[in-house]
Write a structure and sequence with these properties.
By secondary structure, the chain is an alpha/beta fold. The protein has one domain. About 30% of the residues lie in helices and about 20% in strands. The chain has a 6-stranded parallel sheet, with helices on both faces. Strand 4, helix 5 and strand 5 form a beta-alpha-beta unit. The longest helix has 19 residues.
Length: about 180
């Protein structure tokens, strides 16, 4: 079997916003440039984003049309799924272990996990190719369990995040993406 250099990106937008001033070609160039240190042949082939997408205060259907027209690329399939925003994590809880953590609302996490796992199960069933590298872009600590599961299946995981990765994930590939846009 030949090496598979087609990376799949799962983008957890949650309450953040995709940059509307960046079109798909520039987005793909930036992600591909980030992937180059791992392997010069690694290229993005699909990107799936999940989030509230409230930049222009449009209703979800109108916003989806705007996103799909902005993010159209001949080589990379983009898809967008609306998920309601959830409150940000308690910063004091994260910084100080003595502060009790509030229960998390894992709506976007659970939906993204479900869809990612469906897609990965389909790829695992395909015996003709090697597994695609999986790129997860998130700042959500809830993804630790998902990343460990995907790694245990034999996928290579590249984690892009705007905060430091959880200690247990630092052996997987990790990049700080605060300046990619």
């Amino acid at each position: 079997m030949a090496e598979n250099f087609q990376a799949k990106l799962y983008l957890d937008e949650d309450t953040k916003n995709l940059p509307y001033d960046m079109r798909a070609d520039r987005f793909v160039q930036r992600i591909n440039r980030i992937l180059q240190p791992f392997d010069p042949e690694l290229k993005l082939v699909s990107a799936t984003a999940y989030g509230a997408f409230t930049t222009h205060e449009l209703i979800p259907d109108q916003e989806k049309v705007t996103l799909e027209s902005t993010y159209t690329h001949p080589d990379v399939a983009f898809s967008f799924n609306y998920l309601p925003a959830r409150p940000p994590m308690c910063k004091d809880c994260k910084d100080d272990a003595t502060v009790p953590k509030k229960p998390k609302k894992k709506l976007s996490y659970l939906k993204l996990k479900e869809i990612m796992l469906q897609d990965l199960h389909l790829e695992l069933e395909d015996a003709d190719t090697k597994l695609s590298p999986i790129v997860i872009c998130t700042s959500d600590e809830d993804f630790e369990e998902v990343i460990e599961l995907i790694i245990s299946w034999g996928f290579k995981v590249i984690l892009l995040t705007n905060v430091d990765a959880e200690d247990s994930l630092k052996n997987s590939a990790h990049l700080c993406s605060t300046s990619w846009f």
